[in-house]
Structure formats: C-alpha cells, structure tokens
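Possible regression after last week's pipeline update?

I re-ran a chain I had predicted before the update to compare outputs. Posting the input and the new output here so someone can diff against the archived version. Not blocking, just want to make sure nothing changed silently.
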Amino acid sequence: MASFVAVVGAIWFILPAYLANASPVVLGGGLPMDFGHHFIDKRRLFGDGKTWRGFYGGILVGILVGALQGYLYPHIALDSPVNDLTMTAYILRAVLLSFGAGVGDLTGSFIKRRINLKRGAPFPIVDQIGFLVLAFLFAVLRFEVPTVYVLILLPLTLFAHLGANIFAYLAGMKDVWY
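New output (post-update):
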C-alpha cells in the first residue's frame, strides 16, 4: 500500500510538468522560437516544431493544473508532506515544473539539431525524460523533490511517454509513434 501511495504522490507532484510537456502537441503552431535562425554550425537552433505558442501554452496549462491541485488538495486524501502546500506554493511549484519541462524539451531539440537529427527523429531517453530532468532541476530551486519520486518517475515516464506518443499518433496529432 505504501508503494501505491508513493506512486500516486509522485504523479500528483509532477502532473503540471507532464501536462505542460504534452499540451504543445495540441496548442502549438505558429512562429518558431528560433525565428528560423541558425546556430554557428549552420543548423537551426530548435526547428519549426518548437513554437512560442506551444511553449507558453504548455506553461499556462501546467500553471492551471497547479492551481487546480492547490484548490483540490484540501478536499482529497493524499497524504504527502511535499504536497501539503498553500495555493501560492502550488502555483509557484507548477511554474517551476512547467517552465523546467519546456526548457528541457527545448534543450533536447537543441541537442538533436547539433547532432544532425531531423525534427521528429527519435532520440531515445532524451525524448522521454529530458523534460522531466529539467523540471526536477527547476523545482528543486525552491521545493523538496523526494528521491523516491525521482526513482518512481524516471522509469514510469519512459513508459508513459511512449504510451502517450502512441495515443497521439493514433489520434492523428503526431506524425510518428515515438
């Protein structure tokens, strides 16, 4: 039972980052974040797939999730000291997690361009958990990130990311299944 509670607590903790990372697939489009510019290696900084609308839309979704969590927490039985926060703290944590997830995704795209991987090409591990690692790093600037949550979420996210991508592919929201 304790392990189930830890998994639920970990998912509750990271939910703003998860949804911030997933929502640009739906909310994205428009002006690329790199404005079409190239790096010193003559390759795009991020590529057309990283847009301002997707980036900020993802952060907004994550913040809204954090606000909803702050509202719901007193009304649900989720026993975890790192989730017993004020509304302001929930929103701040959501900002850090969501912004970290966005920066993590951008970092992965930047690295992919440097090693000459095209948009949509697989980059195992980085594609699946790069956003998560940066979300943790941003969150730890202000909040405790329990080690057990990291140990639960790293492998869980590998499988969840793959499942979400397959779903998005089957639903016609992505061009590739990975």
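Follow-up from reviewer: compared with the archived run. The CA atoms of residues 78 and 164 lie 25 Å apart. Marking as no regression found.
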